[in-house]
Amino acid sequence: DIQLTQSPSFLSASVGDRVTLTCRASQNISTYLVWYQQGPGRAPTLLIYDASKLQGGVPSRFSGSGSGTEFTLTISSLQPEDFATYYCHQVNSYPLITFGGGTKLEMK
Amino acid sequence: QVHLVESGGGVVQPGRSLTLSCAASGFTFNTYAIHWVRQAPGKGLEWVSGIWSHGTNKYYAESVRGRFTISGDNSKNTVYLQMNSLRVEDTAVYYCARVGLRTVWAFDVWGQGTMVTVSS
Fold first, then answer.
1. pLDDT tens per residue, range A14-64
2. Which of B32, B13, B10, B31 is nearest to B21 (CA)?
3. Residue A83's pLDDT is what?
4. Is B107 within 8 Å of A34 when comparing Cβ atoms?
5. DSSP character string of B48-60
6. Do B95 and A44 make contact, defined as CB atoms within 8 angstroms?
7. Nearest CA-CA distance, residue A82 and chain B, Å
8. Chain A residues with CB inside 8 Å of B59's CB?
9. CB contact under 8 A, A55 and B103
10. Which residue, among B22, B20, B1, has the nearest Cα to B10 in the 3D structure?
11. Nearest to residue B67, comparing CAs of B21, B18, B118?
């Protein structure tokens, strides 16, 4: 099974900050990496697919990069609605997929 | 509007069964794959099962294989998850999600989730 490790598990930041979240895969997954955002008590929503492609309707302050085993999600200027939990998701072995453990982004 | 709506959750004793439903609307159901993903209280996301809309290919996580069965009814635009021999560790919010046609296997639409509690 392909394992995904997200870091950090928790991140405190302020509105306006630039933040970078990391997701590392246990083996090469090319660009088959997805990012979701999940607000408290809400279902996840799709942010980024194919490592760097922005889903329609997602603000341009979100960006993704990486390939192989190391990936990042960057939020260029945090907004109040961005404080949530972020999950990476590998689809290289689709349909046998896995999620990372998540990064909870909290307001400082 | 594209929607997925889960139902069928509840409280059940260990060893008993429960069937969840995922009703789709606003899109051509039989051209998509639908998956179930669960989230235990305070924990992360865990993939459970997936099905191609035509129903011939079905996939399961190791943790549920042999106990859970996924199925679909194109006439009702609904995917089901039959859960047998439930365990305490199956307690979670269960989401169904659609694989987008242009999102390289990413889940582009999610339901709101239904809670399953396995407890004696």
1. 999 999 999 999 999 999 999 999 999 999 999 999 999 999 999 999 999
2. B10
3. 97
4. yes
5. EEEEETTSS-EEE
6. yes
7. 18
8. 95-96
9. yes
10. B20
11. B18
